[in-house]
């Protein structure tokens, strides 16, 4: 009878973990604070989840913390993310990290419920935060996107660039517009063609969109989606590509650079503050914590051999200006592609104004493919 009960309990535990989006993996010091991490994909995806995991592991090791991980949790299923978070809390996690935009609503409800006031919630992107136990974090990725746009335009022979994009959502459009403005700084007549795939990550849809852009005459591709499918499509077609999220070149000589996150730059000081009891969300809008190239959160990978030397020099100059706080991407007269004004002559958009962007700038044409 005891054996039967043991087997039944084992099945219950397995089912519980599966319902919360995959296995739970524990790494780090057994005595350290437990940090529960919810990932939209695999931590070995070569893209966003791997980038996030790398920063978490490095910061956790330095601060004596233990990571408990849940991978492949759908961020479009509110109950799945809620279940994943509560399961991690039940395992003794005192910190919950939501590693995708779509986890924000569930984590905010838990943070505000009054049942988890002793739990610290950290959430990437979105606008969910409070002033007690939930912080959201992001950064001025428009800086690295702008620089990658310069590199793309300098490498392109035809002046037609392709952009595989997740959703027509502000975060994504900030990147599209910054990339386009950087490209226009090199070639004012450059065209940027965008295909929205309406999902954060689906390798098949990403590759199909990349191939659609290649057929439309694009000779350099970039992307805002979670996998490396766009890089691989560019490599197969013999054209150039940037990476995204993570400095991971899977395209060989076709790779020219990548805007990417160094998540350690956020997690290390945050974990230190949690350990010493000084952590408190700022409650600032639109984000509690907002990094930059200056802070080290936002990075640009090394430039590939295909980027001309004079362009490399110019890109390096602008990057240094960004790190010194002397160069702002959304500054001066900028118009949307429908003729409306995004930024006036003599104006520099604040972070709050940047996060109200709703459309693409002049020089961009966009289409939308429905996800399955």
From TrEMBL:
Signal peptide location: 1-18
This protein's UniProt keywords: Signal
Residue span(s) of domain ABC transporter substrate-binding protein PnrA-like: 33-248
GO CC annotations, alphabetized: plasma membrane
Family annotation (CDD domains): PBP1_BMP-like (cd19963)
Protein name: BMP family ABC transporter substrate-binding protein
């Amino acid at each position: 009878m005891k054996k039967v009960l043991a087997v039944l309990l084992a099945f219950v535990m397995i089912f519980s973990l599966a319902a919360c989006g995959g296995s739970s993996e524990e790494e780090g010091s057994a005595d350290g604070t437990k940090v529960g991490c919810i990932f939209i994909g695999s931590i070995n995806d070569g893209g966003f989840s791997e980038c996030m995991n790398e920063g978490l592991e490095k910061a956790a090791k330095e601060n004596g913390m233990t990571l408990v991980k849940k991978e492949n949790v759908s961020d479009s299923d509110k109950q799945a993310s809620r279940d994943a978070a509560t399961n991690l809390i039940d395992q003794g996690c005192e910190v919950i990290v939501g590693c995708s935009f779509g986890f924000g609503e569930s984590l905010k409800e838990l943070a505000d419920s009054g049942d988890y006031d002793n739990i610290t919630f950290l959430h990437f992107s979105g606008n969910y935060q409070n002033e007690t136990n939930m912080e959201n974090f992001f950064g001025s990725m428009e800086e690295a996107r702008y620089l990658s746009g310069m590199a793309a335009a300098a490498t392109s022979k035809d002046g037609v660039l392709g952009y595989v994009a997740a959703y027509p959502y502000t975060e994504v459009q900030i990147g599209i517009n910054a990339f386009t403005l950087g490209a226009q700084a090199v070639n004012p007549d450059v065209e940027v063609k965008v295909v929205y795939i309406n999902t954060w990550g689906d390798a098949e849809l990403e590759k199909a969109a990349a191939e659609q852009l290649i057929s439309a005459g694009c000779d350099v591709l970039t992307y805002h989606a979670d996998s490396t499918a766009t890089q691989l499509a560019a490599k197969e077609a013999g054209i150039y590509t940037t990476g995204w999220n993570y400095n991971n070149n899977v395209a060989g000589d076709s790779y020219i650079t990548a805007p990417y996150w160094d998540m350690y730059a956020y997690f290390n000081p945050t974990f230190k503050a949690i350990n010493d009891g000084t952590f408190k969300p700022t409650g600032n809008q639109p984000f509690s914590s907002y990094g930059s190239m200056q802070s080290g959160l936002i990075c640009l990978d090394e430039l590939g051999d295909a980027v001309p030397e004079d362009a490399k020099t110019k890109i390096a100059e602008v990057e240094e200006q960004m790190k010194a706080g002397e160069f702002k991407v959304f500054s001066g007269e900028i118009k949307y592609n429908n003729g409306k004004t995004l930024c006036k002559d003599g104006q520099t958009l604040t972070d709050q104004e940047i996060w109200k962007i709703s459309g693409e700038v002049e020089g961009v044409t966009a289409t939308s493919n429905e996800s399955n």
